[in-house]
Each structure stands twice: as structure tokens, then as C-alpha cells.
Amino acid sequence: MSALTGYSRLVVAATILMTLAACTTTDVAEVEEPAVAPMTGQTNDPAPGFANVKAGSEEDFILNVGRRTYFTQDSATLDPVAKATLDKQAIWLKSNPQWLVKLQGFADDSGSTSAMATLSQRRADAVMAYLVSQGVDASRVWAKGYGNDREVRDCTSRSCKVQNRRVVSNLRTERDAV
Q: What strands, in cross-sheet order, belong to the sheet with 100-105?
């Protein structure tokens, strides 16, 4: 009886293997995979999967403009890199007046909770003032500082902490509570 069971197992295993071998996934892959944009070798070629980002969309803003502005420790002063990012944001926002912007300021843990809340608000206000100075209508922009409540990462190294010293420009279709 055990020989019959062994033979049955062999037949079942062979049947499963033949069934699996007959299956192909090329049809499924063609349906699920987006067509790859032709690559020209230029530095501005779209990354795979991002070739169809619609101009004026939130994805366009995030990928092609950038929504984060970084600051040095204990500072709300905009450096040249921050201003370059904000210049691009201002141009984009003036070209896409359907969007409102909530500026969310953040800080690391280099001071007291109240000091970091104040600093993060000053950072968000500095970004707002700069965008308005570049022609973005003030009624489309508002700022809120969150202190160090929403750290990107909890860490001790300088290169890590800088990620927490930021203002994030978040697009909105309607004004929300500050």
C-alpha cells in the first residue's frame, strides 16, 4: 500500500509541475507594468514610473519643484539654497493659482519644547514672507509651526538632525485650520 501512495505522490507532483510549467506571466506583466518612457541619456529624463506626471499636479510640485526648505540649527534665516527652492516654488505657485499652500515648520530637539515651537513658527513665517515677496498672493498661504513633535527621525548625528529642521510646503485645494 505504501508503494501505491508513493506512486500517487509522484503522479500528483508531476501533474503540479507540468501545470506550473505551462503557466506564463508575460501577459500579466504587460498588463500590470506601465510602458517605459524612452530614455535619451539626458539628466532630465523622467524616472521610470514618473513619465506621466501631469503638469500643475501635486506630484509635479513634489517631483519637479521640491517642497522642503531646510535651516541651520537654531535659525530661521533663509540661506541661498533655501531661497533657490522657494524661487522655484513661487514660480510654480504663480503658474498654478488653483493651489493653496500650508507651510508646516519643524525643529529638531536642540532646545526646550517651547523654544522649538517658537523657532518652527518663525521658520514657517520666514518661508511665507519670502513666497509673498516673490509674488505669491498672501491669501493663498498660511503657516503653522509644530516644534519637534513631528521629527523625520529621532537621532543624534548632525546629518540626521538637519532633516528635522525644515518647512514643508503642502498643497491644498481649500484652507484648513492652522
A: 68-70, 166-172, 100-105, 141-145
Q: For 74-165, where are the E strands, in sequence order?
A: 100-105, 141-145
C-alpha cell at 32: 500590470
Q: What is the pLDDT of residues 124-174, one digit of tens each?
A: 999 999 999 999 999 999 999 998 776 665 556 566 667 788 999 999 999
Q: What is the pLDDT of residues 110-138, one digit of tens each?
A: 888 999 999 999 999 999 999 999 999 99
Rg of the chain (C-alpha set):
26
C-alpha angle 56-150-81 in degrees, rounded to nearest 5: 55
Of residues 64, 68, 121, 70, the one with CA closest to residue 96: 64
Gap between the Cα atoms of 16 and 34, Å rounded: 31
Q: Using DSSP, state whether 71 is helix, strand or coil.
A: coil
Strands 166-172 and 68-70, by their bridges, are antiparallel
pTM, two decimals, is 0.70
Asked if residue 166 lies in contact with residue 71, where contact means CB atoms within 8 angstroms, the answer is yes
Residue 144 corresponds to which cell in the numbers above?
503653522
User: Residues 57, 26: contact at Cβ < 8 Å?
Assistant: no
